[in-house]
Here is the input.
Amino acid sequence: MPRVVQLGSRTVSFPGPELDELDESSSLLSRPEALSARFEADGYLFLRGVLPEAMVTGARQQVLDWIATGASVAELRRRARLEGPVRRLIEHRALFDALESLLGEPVTTFSFKWLRSIDPGVGTGAHCDAVYMGRGSPRVRTCWIPFGPTPVEQGTLAVCEGSHRASGFDAIRRTYGELDVDRDHIHDTGWFTDEPLELGAGQWRTADFEAGDVIVFGLHTMHAATTNLEGESRVSCDVRFQPSSEPADERWVGADPIGHTTFGRKTQASTTVAALRRQWGL
Here is the structure.
């Protein structure tokens, strides 16, 4: 029976024609060539049960304890890099195994961890990761890890299938996809749009996530998140991996990653994606 969820400001049925189910790829983990082919075709891999459920539960409780002490988002992300239940989860050997199977070689992970607590009423607009971390390897892969069972109504990651390669996204990749939010002094969110369904082309997909599930996607896969319509915050973490042999974006690695430098700061030199879209005619 379809349920009513929210993507951007639009109320949609899930599963339905505007927001359908993710295709699962867990069975391909032991078949690297098939795993890579699925990723190249769809732009994502949905993997169920990759992480131990008990570890997910323990990491979630750790984050909730931090939040209860009044820790800021910056502090949460700093603590995520320290040894403990959260770091052991987000750097679990199973994630390295999955990414090495996908990329065909040893991988490393960014030092910076994008730990998030998303409040009720909040969603995420459509964007691609290239604009935030595109200075190093083009084969950066993001693992989105929900900390516990997360139904679509609580705010789940949604991907626009095939958006990394489909011809309908050529103009977006040539313009928006070449941005660097620091170099280009972007002072808004960096999202292409806060209305994912505005893209028109491509099929949006998401799922009800269980503890231990992850989704993997690349730098040019357009993605968003459904709005959290539940009464409690959604806890999740974005963890980035790439081939160890390739250069890394200097903003996100090292003992104390520098992070963004000018992104989000409104100055005389800054602009917005919305303004640039008008220049591009998109």
Q: What stands out?
A: Helices lie at 32-42, 53-68, 73-80, 85-90, 93-103, 130-133, 170-174, 273-280. DSSP finds eight helices and 13 strands in the chain.
